[in-house]
Amino acid sequence: MKRRQFIQSTLALGATATLGTIAGCGGRGSEPQAPLPFNPGQPLPWTNWAGNQACVPQWRYAPANEDELISALKVAQGVIRPVGAGHSFSAVTTTDDSMISTDLLTGLVSHDPVTLQATVRAGTRLNALGPLLAPVNQALPNMPDMDYPSLGGALANAVHGTGVDFQSMSAYVTGLKLATVGGDLVTCSAEKNPDIFQAALTHVGALGVVSEYTLQNQAPFELTEVNGIAKVEDVFDNMEQLCRENRHFECYLVPYSTLCSTVTTNIRQPGDVAVGEDDPDGANTLRGVFEATTWIPGIGSDLYDFVLSQAFSGTTDMVRTGPSHVVFGHPRLMRFREMEYTVPAELGVTCAREILATIKSKGLGLSFPIEFRYVKADDIWLSMFEGQDGCTISIHQYGDLDYKAPFAEIEKIFWKYGGRPHWGKIHTMTAAALAQIYPRHWQDFHEVRRALDPTGKLMNSHLRSIFEA
Ligand SMILES: Cc1cc2nc3c(=O)[nH]c(=O)nc-3n(C[C@H](O)[C@H](O)[C@H](O)COP(=O)(O)OP(=O)(O)OC[C@H]3O[C@@H](n4cnc5c(N)ncnc54)[C@H](O)[C@@H]3O)c2cc1C
Fold first, then answer.
1. Ligand 1 centroid to residue 204 C-alpha, Å
2. What dihedral angle (degrees, nearest 10) is formed by the CA atoms of 418, 423, 426, 430?
3. What is the CATH topology of the domain spanning 108-219?
């Protein structure tokens, strides 16, 4: 029996035999309400993927080449914000003035078969990149766990996957072209305009609009991903070994339970075959079990843990195998909201234990699994991994449930561990505090930013709050 069927049948059993009628306890939709209505005759509202950020841009531009991009930047009025795929949870793209979409700036510009570098237009979606690079014998060394973002949006925010030997995607950039609000097109690399290059490797869309990036890739490779279930304390106790022995390791901690799901990804071996399939609705199923087993006052979460343990015992691992760009990405069809902080790698397990204990002791209602990953240090000025190996811990909430109050409780824990927020995810840190956690290059970045955008045309209220003390 597949794992999902098993959970569902266990839920059904629990519902009828143990708990009596539980109608109404599960199965709620997780779609957020549209934050802004569309009024005919008025400009079209813009909404991010998660449905928690919205705006009504008066002017929208979708340049198809660098000339059109420069022209758009020259005529754009008010606050200008570039937008990729709208997959950030934070208000990094919103403006009621001028929005510049990179949707038409796509495709492979050139590639070098010797250095394995490729130049790609910044609006190219990550899910288009694999199929573009494969025919020229290249592949990205690592990717995030879903592939909907644009390259420009991902690199603006130091987007990352997992793996102690892999840095964020921004660290694999060797050159880029930046269109500024002044109407210049600046070519940058470690040798040419090095300060702008350094700042632009993770820039939260605050320097201009990047038209193309040159990426350091590697030869194509195939991967096998194995998804299992384990006791969370066993995983915590063996974390170093799991990270060292696998090309990529991550786990999803299941709050209110003693379990986690593990994801190990390695180079495909002969004979590896797929088993089962990805379940994009898995977190909703888990929610159903959570709600069905924890609603009775006084029962606590022991029944939930028991039901999950029963459901998962004896199930087989789910295996995905194939070209790297296919295996790295997963469908993410269910809406949720997310806060992610990076804490120093060596504090990751302790921090996660405290988060799990706090969710349970305070009854925070965060039952969505918590993603736990490692990323290697880099030297990019505003990367969350600048100067330190990082452990990224991602807290999620279902799209129809309140996230602000529970996230606020967990955010205090992240601050205690010196956490740095993911620029594209929900957080409440502002400039003065952020300057403290980026002590080496905060000022360097802002000198470049002010030189390129002296009047703050790119500053919406969110960027002002995070960048202007
Ligand atoms: C379901 C889901 C799963 C996710 N998984 C991961 C994950 O595994 N790892 C991870 O690190 N993050 C993850 N994220 C976060 C997300 O990938 C990032 O926030 C990413 O930056 C979004 O890319 P985008 O193209 O949607 O950019 P947008 O959200 O549209 O924009 C992000 C920023 O980039 C700027 N920008 C975009 N294009 C350009 C350009 N060409 N030039 C200049 N500035 C530009 C925008 O102004 C904005 O500041 C996930 C998000 C979702 C919704």
1. 9
2. 60
3. 3.30.465
